Predict the structure.
Amino acid sequence: MRPRRPEFLASTADLLSVAESIFEEWQEVGAVGHLLARNIDTGEELGFDVDTPVPLASVAKVPLALVVLDQIASGTLDPATPVTIDPATKSVGPTGLAAFRHPVTAAVGDLVHPTLTVSDNASADALFDLVGVDQVDERLREWGCAGIRIRHRMQRMYDCAAGVAGNDFGLALELAIRDDVAGQHSIETLNPAYANVGSATALVELLQRIWLDRISRPEATAELRRVMGFQVFYQRLSSDLRSDSVRVSGKTGSFLYLRHEIGVVTADSGDRVAIAVLTRSHRRASTAHDIDLAIGAAARSAFESLRA
Amino acid sequence: MDLLAHLEAYVAVAEEGSFSRAADRLYIAQPVLSRRIRNLEQHLGGELFDRSRRQVTSTDLGVLLLPHARDVLGRVDHLRQTARTALASATRVLGVPPDCDPAALARVIRAGADRGVTIGVQELSAEERASGMADGSLMFALLRVAPETASHRVPLGLASAVAVTVSSRQRLVHLESLRPRRGTDSGSPPSILVTAEDEIGFATERFRKAVARAGLPEGRVRAVTSNATAVAETLAGHAVLLCAEPFARRHGLAWSPLADVTLHRGYELATATRRVGQRETPALDWLEPLLAEAIGAATEKTTVDSGVFAPDARSGMAARG
């Protein structure tokens, strides 16, 4: 992958050089993509190619959860409503209720938890079925989240990949990479025209509004912030950041060549930085530790240069 | 008409003084012989034999032409003899990989000379060896095949200025272990150099895939066109070199074999199947073991297990974390 020079965005010259060195480090491990990091209190920011719509993969679970929590907060949805997830019809996935082999009944309010903490596809799709894909999209537009589009359930990603490659992950990845080079997509959920998409700007904007209680209702945003703090995946955005004094509340997104994570880094010092990292790579592997670490290094550089 | 066969019939009848004895000598039926003589007489425009007497005698024309006919047949015989001799002593061109052990190749040439066979060794790239077999310019070549099916398997490993594995005994190299360690600032990790012999079709594909699966960026692998440059960079400690053990030893490099044997080299000795004169290309039994030694083939037959551990396929395809 020979990426063109991206469009950099930075509040100061120092922040520009941070953005430039992050871009170069990503290039060294074979990743390209989009980054935006913003101090949600001062508004200072740095990043590159921030307005490109990118297929979101599991990052879409954040706006989904917000809409569900909004309905609970407004009283339209009872959080105690039981939902039964049947192994025969549930969505595919390696974690959470998606991995269960026997029917399970859980309350709507609790399904948000595995959806965000372990990226559970079955819980997420149960929520999608409850509130409706179109309704999530419409609600986002009412809130003025212009750069985010929700168009399908999580299971659609598996269906599209399996549709072209059967159950062969390696083949699906090869096809996706070939399509990316050719600029056309045989896997529809990787096509920005049909996928759930968001730009780095739109995602940081959303995180900022969630953390500042400037969207939905305070009960909903507080619950979303709380649950996002329990995410169990530390390999990416938080790989070089976490300590007892620095916390990362995030949501990852991984699908074929996509490796994303959005999140807010908060420190005991009171600094709060929202970060959206959306990457893709032609690496023919599902695990790329060095790319995850490069994302983690980027998050650390961004946080340290943006904190007061 | 086949003038030579007809002249042969003419000379035989003249020398034997009898159609039946001439037919016996040539191992053909007498009517065939008679027809040949008649055809030749027609061709030359006059009778060669007087058949009116009991004993067959040559006509004046037959006597006049006999030495010329013998001369033509003698020259043709000489032509054939020359061709046979030339073919028997022809150089047999053998295509080998460019990083063979020169001393072992010298043994191949000497073993040929001892048996009266001239072996011309050409060090060629894998593509050139394959195309040389296809266009007939090579009589023998060591062709690259997948190690699982190969007659000769050459263990590939990583050569380096300092041993990549810590133990003093030779240990297997796992590609995953080439990832830089976290928490150590060891500068940029060394490139993995790949020479032309391993930059071919399926072998490249396999190696690149294994590198990606081991969590290494594609940029770590670098193709080099010159073996000398590769050795120089490796000796300088800037890189590790994918090569066979004898090559590493010859250049004073430490070497450890790759644990994944599906990444090793496989070779098959191809022999040209075209017919030379009346003979097939001779099979040279003594050649193959000597060549196996020259490429550094493993002596024991190791079973190659290409089965890869695959976690739940369906989960891998779905959106994850």
Summary: Chain A touches chain B through 42 residues (CB under 8 Å). The CA atoms of residues 240 and 297 of chain A lie 6 Å apart. The mean pLDDT of chain A is 96. The radius of gyration of chain A is 18 Å.
